[in-house]
Each structure stands twice: as C-alpha cells, then as structure tokens.
Amino acid sequence: MNIPLFFLRTPYRVREYMLEDDKDYSLKSTEILSPYKRTQKSCSEYYLAENHIESPIEGLGQTAVPNTYVKMEDDFQSRVYNGRFFSNGDFYYCSSQDEIKIYDVSDTENWKCVNSFVARGVSWTITDVDLSPDENFLVYSSMNPVINIIKLNSDAISSTFTFSTDQHSILLNQIDPGYGIFSCEFSGSGTEVLVGTRIQTLEIHDLVKKKLAYRALNAHDDDINTACFASEGSQVIYSGSDDSLIKIWDRRVSGSVSQGVLIGHREGITYLSSKGNGLNLISNGKDQCIKLWDIRKLMSPSESRDFIRSHQYQMGFDYRMGRYPLENYHKLLAADNSVTTFKGHKVLGTLIRCHFSPLETTGQRYIYTGGADGKVWIYDSLTGKTIQTLQYEEAEENEYEDTVCRDVSWHPYRPMIAATSFSGSIYQYSYV
After folding, report:
1. Which sections of the protein are WD repeats (predicted)?
2. Are strands 269-274 and 354-356 parallel, antiparallel or unpaired?
3. Per-residue pLDDT at 62
4. Which of 129, 230, 245, 400 shows a CA-CA span of 20 to 30 A to 392?
5. pLDDT score recorded for residue 401
C-alpha cells in the first residue's frame, strides 16, 4: 500500500521520503546538449582560474558583493519583467511583455543577443519564464490558460517531448473562466511544469503523458502569485498567494489540504524562492518586507484558520495605488514564526522577486531583491542588516512607473548582478 509520508521531524533536520512504489522522477537524458552549454571551459572556470581561486566559497569569499553600477543593455521596446543567468553563467535569458531574449554574457563587457523569440498569445504580459534542468527548453506563461515551450536547440533529440516546432503551445484549461497563470516552473526531471493560477489552483502538468498530474483546488483564498518546488527532484511544493499565506504541499497526498501554513506577512505574497535544502525559503510581500522561513516552524491548517478568523489582520492593500500605510510599522503578528524579517525595499506595482545569493561564491549568505524605486537591495541573512543598495545613474526617487526593478539575478560565479527594469533595460552591477 502506498502510504505517503511528508516529513520525519527531528531536532536537527527534516528529511523527505520517497516510498518504493512512488513514481520515478529521474532526469530524462538528451543525446545532444543544449547549444548554451559550452564544450570548452566556461567563463566561470576561466574567472576562477585567472583569480587563482581554488574554492569559490573560501576564495572569492563573502565580501565580494556587487557594489557599483557598470552598464546597461537597452534592447527592449516594453517593460522587462523576468531575467536569470544560466547555471554555467555564460548565458542570460530575460523577457519583456511580449519577447524573450538570450544573451551570451561570457564577455561581461560585451553582451551579445544570440537568440530572440516573439511570445505567442500574450495576455497583458509574460508573467513567468523558467529554464529546464537540461537547459534545452524554456517555458513561459501569461494571463491565460496556455503555457508555451520553446526549444532552444533545434537539433536536440529528447525523450521528453515529441513536438518539432521551435515553440509549442499547451492548453491547460478550457473550462474555468478567468484562468490565468502567474507562476510556472519546471520540475527537477524537466518532464513536468508546476503552475500557480488566478483561479486559486495549484497544478502540475505532465509534459510526457500530456495530462494533469496533480491539482489542489481552492489551494488559497486569492490569486496564487508564486509556486516552487522545495528542492530539485522534491515532491514538496511551496505556494504564496494574495491571501498573505505561504502553504506547504506534498504532491503524494491527494486533495486540497496543505501539510502546513506559514503566517507572518500582513499582505499578499509576490514571490517565493527556495534555498534548495528542503528546509528554508524566502518570501517577498506587499507589506514591504522579505521573510526568511524554516518550514519546521509551520502551523497546521486548522491552527492557521483559527488565527486568521480571530485576528483579521489583512487590509487588502492594493500595491498599484501608492505607498503601504503600515510601511513604518514594525510589530510582528503573534503567529509570525519567520526566522528574520528584512525591510527597506519597496514592493509596489508588480510582483517583485527575491533570491538567495549563489552557493558557489557566497554560501547563499545574502538575500537580494529588486524594488519599485529601481534599486537592488542586498541583505545579510545572518545579521539581518542591509549590506548594499544599488541604483543606476538615471533612476530617480519616487518615479516608480519607469524605474521598477522586478527581477534580479546574481551570476553563479562572478560578483555581478543583472537587474530587469520597466524602462525596457537590463542593468548590470559588479564588485569593483
């Protein structure tokens, strides 16, 4: 009998268990690697060699934090929403409202656009983009029931997908009106896509079997703005919503009841980022703060419902309309079990993202985020202090419409951050 287990709790760690009769979610192999994976040394290897660094964490150290505006890539005709480096650091992908571009960034002084794709069937904007683990495919979503898969390597022979066109559209829902996708992410195997929707459902779609693999109906009481796997290959999922809650799910447990809830934000969650260790994550919220979490401190669903009913703390703040009324209010909710709260950046106008700094060069010590004023904020997760704020030269305070920095990406091996901007540009910051 398949008895799903969620966590074995110990004072020191949380371990996930995969039972013998569970599905095999192992990686599908590809015969031809993505053209974005270099056969010779990557720029990261050259960088470490040139600087005589044997151990990235010990050599480059935790002091090489980006501190200076360097340059701008101004290639888009509309707002730039999403942007991330490839795992080897040689390439960078980003999306505007209706276009996706890939840059060769091996020469940091001279970024070259090596590919671009016009998005299909966009409703308002491309809401999210994710790169498959084998780096052969991109998935992107919009405010409609369709996800699109882009094949980056036309010669790739993959056992995962059967389509032959460069872009393939997959209709996820034909029934529910108002269905739109805020968040999409490949699974660790690259064979499934996790989505968070406007109709409060959390779903996993199997790209191989071409069917719905998991669905939590009424997972939240409002839009699910963000969802991610706890770690690569994990069966545990984190979701964040405009109902201000973060929920923990085990896909091996059917039904729409979460395994636990994290309470602490007073307003909606804009983004979640997992540390990848199955224990820690960070959240960005419309209450103008980031919170660091340990999921061993979660509340049960019944406890969280009781607390929400008795306190009714959420104001329903519309972050498109101005400053947050409680911006300078620092009292925590009674049920707040977060490890640390970070404040200073502004979460207004769009679903601004936050991330952990790279493991290879910083040990994931830092937490960094964009902001509505165009700044990049870097916090120290150990002390809770602001380490650095970065801003390009043309940005001006309070002109949020054009300066919003929605997404930020720290190069995996170089002390460099790329920040997307609603001005239609990508700004680069480095350690000088």
Report:
1. 217-250, 262-296
2. unpaired
3. 53
4. 129
5. 59
